[in-house]
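Deliverable D2.4 — example input (structure tokens):
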């Protein structure tokens, strides 16, 4: 009889574990699929889309000059986009990555505490707006978060002092592959080292962990060496201040404002005394962002998406804190009613997470609007298809914004790309190589109008492009043409220029810059006090 009772109890426990892991994964899967087709890609997604559709040799050639840090992801997306090259398929891997992460966070809560802690932690991760945002991005960050959560789960037996034989190569292998998706995952090693230190694991566990860390280092060091040569791609990043730290805390705490934020912060503080959950969650939550922000005071490298994987620590701490409160209140009840009380507590926690999601619902709705991204290249292409006449010349300032035409070629099918000399796939570049300044000037001689797809900051300020060829294009346009109608979508502006009448004189600054271009063959220095602009400010 006792054996049968124990068997039934064990089956109930297993069912509770399965539910605790499956429900959060299903919730974020539904949230991620909701509004997945926004009706347009933005710049970073268009890069994934275009590079993923190239052949493997073309992708390999491109990585020698840019985005080596995303090389493995591009090769993976090459396989995905072979199925169907569309926006929904582009974002599906991120949705699946977010679902996997929610399930793994739940599994961590189950393993470190009990099923209800795992259920709450997984649901909290699933309903956090930051999770939903990156679940719908055609980039690698949601998949990276899943890799780190999986490696953290593999670390738990070592924290418990019962590591299985050969655990370190599975842990190290998964973390190494995840680092190939983004090299800043190496900061998770620091968090895991502190976890082992706090858990006071034996010497043999430390030796195995060092082997795993060495495996990660051997795999990642070549990527670090290559990416250092491409460090100009993150020149747009700035030194993070207290505002960035505050924004990250609010984003990690299940929403930026309101009572939900403060309740989560309070429960995280309570969760610090939760034993094993705190030992695993707190270093993962704190160390990667703190280390990256500290380093960024000297060399800016920080962006919240680079430490998205640290978010997994926040719901674990919050759920552990809620469990501690529930246990303390349960001790005040009569002994006979505690089992029933436990069921009510689990349900109450789930309802509370649901209320948090309802409060964040406006943020989710806003995030599903194309206007909430830095730009909508589909909208730019739609305006181009409507207004550009057959044979109208078009210029891209900087040339990186040729992404709009490459991603949505039908919108620019009537336009004539007068600057393009060699396509991106043939030249091993993202947006191709362009003609020399003299040739470009000759091509524009007979044009009465020209369309410009430009970085919005170039057209609304006195800033000049950092690239000499782009400065030439801007000088030619300002010297010979007058601005007319325009369409702005965030960082991108589509603008029509018409040729000036013969008697109209160009602005002195444009004439001076154009003269400098002619004298130097198209490689002028920027005017004093002008700032060079990066080509595509939000990559990699």
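Example output (designed residues):
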């Amino acid at each position: 009889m006792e054996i049968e009772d124990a068997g039934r109890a064990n089956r109930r426990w297993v069912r509770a574990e399965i539910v605790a892991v499956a429900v959060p994964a299903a919730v974020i899967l539904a949230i991620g699929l909701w509004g997945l087709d926004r009706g347009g890609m933005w710049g970073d997604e268009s890069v994934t889309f275009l590079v993923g559709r190239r052949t493997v040799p073309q992708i390999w050639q491109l990585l020698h000059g840019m985005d080596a840090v995303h090389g493995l992801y591009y090769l993976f997306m090459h396989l995905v986009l072979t199925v169907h090259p569309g926006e929904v398929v582009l974002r599906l891997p991120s949705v699946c990555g977010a679902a996997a992460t929610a399930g793994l966070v739940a599994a961590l809560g189950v393993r470190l505490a009990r099923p209800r802690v795992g259920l709450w932690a997984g649901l909290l991760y699933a309903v956090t707006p930051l999770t939903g945002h990156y679940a719908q991005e055609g980039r690698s960050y949601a998949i990276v978060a899943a890799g780190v959560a999986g490696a953290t789960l593999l670390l738990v037996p070592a924290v418990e002092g019962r590591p299985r034989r050969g655990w370190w190569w599975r842990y190290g292998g998964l973390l190494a592959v995840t680092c190939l998706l983004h090299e800043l995952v190496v900061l998770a090693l620091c968090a895991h080292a502190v976890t082992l230190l706090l858990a006071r694991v034996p010497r043999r566990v430390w030796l195995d962990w060092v082997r795993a860390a060495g495996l990660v280092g051997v795999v990642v060091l070549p990527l670090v060496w290559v990416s250092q040569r491409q460090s100009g791609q993150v020149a747009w990043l700035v030194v993070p201040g207290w505002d960035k730290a505050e924004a990250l805390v609010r984003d990690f705490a299940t929403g930026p404002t309101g009572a939900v934020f403060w309740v989560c912060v309070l429960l995280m503080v309570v969760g610090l005394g939760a034993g094993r959950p705190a030992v695993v969650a707190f270093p993962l939550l704190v160390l990667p962002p703190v280390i990256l922000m500290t380093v960024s005071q000297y060399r800016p490298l920080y962006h919240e998406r680079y430490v998205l994987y640290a978010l997994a620590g926040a719901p674990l701490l919050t759920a552990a804190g809620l469990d501690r409160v529930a246990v303390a209140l349960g001790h005040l009840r009569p002994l006979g009613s505690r089992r029933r009380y436990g069921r009510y507590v689990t349900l109450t926690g789930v309802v509370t997470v649901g209320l948090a999601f309802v409060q964040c619902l406006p943020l989710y709705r806003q995030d599903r609007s194309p206007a909430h991204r830095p730009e909508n290249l589909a909208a730019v292409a739609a305006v181009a298809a409507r207004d550009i006449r057959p044979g109208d010349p078009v210029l891209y300032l900087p040339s990186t914004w040729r992404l709009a035409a490459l991603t949505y070629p039908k919108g620019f099918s009537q336009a004539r790309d007068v600057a393009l000399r060699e396509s991106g796939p043939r030249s091993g570049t993202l947006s191709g190589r362009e003609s020399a300044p003299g040739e470009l000037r000759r091509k524009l001689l007979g044009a009465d109008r020209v369309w410009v797809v430009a970085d919005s900051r170039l057209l609304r300020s006195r800033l000049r492009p950092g690239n000499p060829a782009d400065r030439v294009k801007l000088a030619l346009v300002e010297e010979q043409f007058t601005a007319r109608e325009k369409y702005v979508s965030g960082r991108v502006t589509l603008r029509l220029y018409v040729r000036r009448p013969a008697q109209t004189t160009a602005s002195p600054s444009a004439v001076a810059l154009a003269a400098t271009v002619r004298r130097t063959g198209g490689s002028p220095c920027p005017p004093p006090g002008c700032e060079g602009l990066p080509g595509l400010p939000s990559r990699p």
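The longest helix spans residues 2-33.
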